[in-house]
Amino acid sequence: MKTQLFKLLFLINIGFFNIANAQSIGDVFEQTGTIGDITRENGEQLSAELNAPIVSMDTVETKNGRLKIQFVDDTQVSMTEHTVVEINEYVYDPNPSNSKMALNFAQGTARFATGRLGLVPKENIQIETPTASIGIRGTDFTMSVDELGRSLVILLPDEDCDDAQRLEEGCAPSGSITVTNNGGVQILDQAFQAVMVSTAETPPTRPVVIQDLDLNMIDNMFIVNPPGEVQQAVAEQEEESQGVDLLAFNDLDVDFLDENLLPDDDFEEYDELSRDFLNVDYLVNLLDVIDNSLDMDPIKTNKLNRTQAQDSNIKGTLNPGFDPVTQYNTIIEEGSDSILFLRIVDGQGKISLRIPAGANAKIETEVEPTKSIICVNDCSSINIYIRQNNG
User: Fold this and answer.
1) Do β-strands 361-367 and 382-388 pair in parallel, antiparallel, or remain unpaired?
2) Which of 15, 187, 240, 377 has its C-alpha lying 20 to 30 A from 1's C-alpha?
3) Of all helices (H) and strands (E), which one includes residue 384?
4) Under a CB-based contact definition with an 8 Å cutoff, are residues 333 and 319 in contact?
5) How many alpha carbons lie under 13 Å from residue 55 in its C-beta half-sphere?
């Protein structure tokens, strides 16, 4: 009787062992630097250490380190510092046509290389970023995604082309990929070809070939300071969109000054004394700490419409762009009526302040060991004091 009970328990344990192993879809194949985290669907959190198992619905996040995931079909995802990848689905079936993979690259920089085993057909692989979908017909490409969701996608050459070989020497592309969103679609089919996608509604830029690209250069800084070819494509897209907006305006025959949009008895005289500063949301995500945020600053906005925000007098920090002294990015988005001040705090959190264009504000920041004062217009009315001790 005891022998039979032992055999039964043994078989049950083997069954559970097999089920647990069946859930594993890969593991951490390489790991350097600070060990990141793996968060399971049920909220359980594990260390992303070497050989840690990966299962469907895991979210893998690096810290100040790098790692590489290898799936059971030899597909590899290499993640740089401060990168987040969500494994939304991974299904392996003996019939390859039923196998599929769905990944979401939420932020950071990662390199995707499809496996050689062919367990998951390329047409069944779905890659998403916050602003684009990537269709796989190639085998090797990289993505950089900043915290605003902007995505830079680069098609890489065949793996036989090492860093010493250049495009003009014959490096072939690793197939092709499509980059699609609500604004349109672009196809990358040349080695080192790239597109930038700014929003989910803005079409990808025209594809450009990045010259003299060393694969070791591809990291989070690429989304902060894109290659010159990409910056040129973004500038051309902005100019074209502004031209389209002007041509699309079809209300030239309307005299808006003759229209009374408010009933006479509802009109109230409005002046500076009527402004209710307490009814304005000046702070958005103040000290909204995000662990392991991207160690990067948003791309500078260079092409702007003349707005009240752009005409605001900002003193004490570079406007627009990133000031290495104050560590603030000053961002005035096209057509915006507010000014965004964004500061990454040692990769451990962020300060995000959105000030209305017509406001008079003073922002005093003390993050050891630096201190800065930024003035908007005459530096009165609104006083914001931020202090953080690193110790």
Assistant:
1) parallel
2) 15
3) strand 382-388
4) no
5) 13
CA atoms within 13 A on the CB side of 362: 9
The domain spans of the chain are 24-237, 280-388
Query: Is there a contact between 320 and 332 (Cβ–Cβ < 8 Å)?
Result: yes
Residue 154: which of 199, 202, 205 has the closest Cα? 205
- Taking only the tens place, the pLDDT of each residue in 50-82 is 999 999 999 999 999 999 999 988 899 999 999
Radius of gyration of the chain (CA): 26
Confidence of residue 16 (pLDDT cuts 50, 70, 90): very low
Distance from chain centroid for Cα 264:
49
Taking the C-alpha atoms of residue 134 and residue 130, their distance in angstroms, rounded to an integer, is 11
CB pairs under 8 A, 24+ apart, for 86-91? 86/58, 86/59, 86/60, 87/25, 87/54, 87/55, 87/56, 87/57, 87/58, 87/59, 87/60, 88/56, 88/57, 88/128, 89/56, 89/57, 90/25, 90/26, 90/56, 90/120, 91/56
CATH class of 24-237: mainly beta
Token duo for residue 247: 């041509």
Query: What is the pLDDT confidence band of residue 310, given thresholds at 50, 70 and 90?
Result: low
Tokens 């894109």 — which residue? Answer: 226
Residue 358: closest CA among 374, 338, 375, 341? 338
Nearest-CA neighbor of 82 among 273, 314, 346, 347? Answer: 347
Do 320 and 330 touch, CB atoms closer than 8 A? yes
Non-local CB neighbours of 229 within 8 Å, separated by 6+ positions? 194, 208, 209, 210, 211
pTM of the prediction? 0.57
Whether 354 and 338 have beta carbons less than 8 Å apart is answered as: yes
Helices vs. strands in the chain: H and E counts, helices first? 4, 25
What CA–CA distances, in Å, run from 296 to 58, 123, 268?
25, 33, 46
Largest Cα–Cα distance in the chain? 99
Give the lowest-confidence range in 106-115, 284-293, 378-387.
Answer: 284-293
Q: Which residues pair with 385 in a beta bridge?
A: 364
